[in-house]
Amino acid sequence: MTLYAGYRSSRFNFDPRRKTIWSAVAAYLQRYIPEDGAVLDLGSGYCDFINAVHARRRWALDLYLNPAEFAAEGVKPLQADVTNLEAISDSSLDAVFASNILEHLPDEKLIWAVGAVKDKLRPGGRFIALQPNYRYCYRHYFDDYTHCRVFSHVSLADFLKAQGFTIERIIPRFLPFSFKSRAPKWGWLARLYLRSPWKPWAKQMLVIALKP
């Protein structure tokens, strides 16, 4: 029995409406992911992001949800821990996307996971991290019982710089805190929201880091 036993039904249940939101997010982030390159979705969940983004090679890695159940044709599923990227060659990835994963990792695992990401990225490759910004969501942050680490857009950027990355872009307010809200999940509304400089209820941040 692990901490994540039952997590799928209690905190991370399947919601088909997520697909429209993730399609909009993937379209927004496509500018950072070359279509002729290779991308890994680290902690891919239901594969909504990796299924929507365009790249010549796509990988989906998750341990508690088997990516083989959800990955679209052309996406290679890997059921493994986020610290275990041995199936991917070093310096072969153009981008690694991680959504709502780093805040779940204790110290040693966090260092190992980010180190593995850095090893697999080519020079100039991007680590794209999307996750709750504690500065704006502290009241609800620990409603998720698996959260064990706190990051703000400042501390996450500093941590990644300490691991040898350079910071390309920081958006302190990028998306709402959770997809569990009752707000409408319409694709056109999500696209408009992402383009807008005014983002009400945005409590998740986006940090994009480069491997030198």
Strand and helix order: HHEHEEEHEHHEHE
CATH class: Alpha Beta
Counted up, domains total: 1
According to CATH, the fold-level topology is Rossmann fold
Strand content: 25-35%
Number of strands: 7
Spatial order of the strands in the main sheet? Answer: 3-2-1-4-5-7-6
**How many DSSP H or I helices?**
7
Oligomer: single chain
Structural class, by secondary structure, is: alpha/beta
Short description:
With 212 residues, this protein is α/β, with parallel strands linked by helices. It contains seven helices and seven strands; from the N terminus they run ααβαβββαβααβαβ. Strands 3-2-1-4-5-7-6 form a seven-stranded mixed β-sheet.
Secondary-structure map:
Blueprint: H1 7-10, H2 18-29, E1 38-42, H3 48-52, E2 57-62, E3 75-79, E4 93-99, H4 107-120, E5 121-132, H5 134-137, H6 153-162, E6 166-176, H7 187-195, E7 202-210
Parallel strand pairs: 1-2, 1-4, 2-3, 4-5
Antiparallel strand pairs: 5-7, 6-7
Structure description:
The chain is α/β, with parallel strands linked by helices and 212 residues long. It has one domain (7-210): Vaccinia Virus protein VP39 (Rossmann fold), CATH 3.40.50.150. The chain has helices at 7-10, 18-29, 48-52, 107-120, 134-137, 153-162, 187-195; strands spanning 38-42, 57-62, 75-79, 93-99, 121-132, 166-176, 202-210. Strands 3-2-1-4-5-7-6 form a seven-stranded mixed β-sheet. α3 (48-52) links the parallel β1 and β2 (57-62). α2 packs parallel to α7. The protein is globular and about 40 Å long. The model has no long low-confidence stretch (mean pLDDT 89).
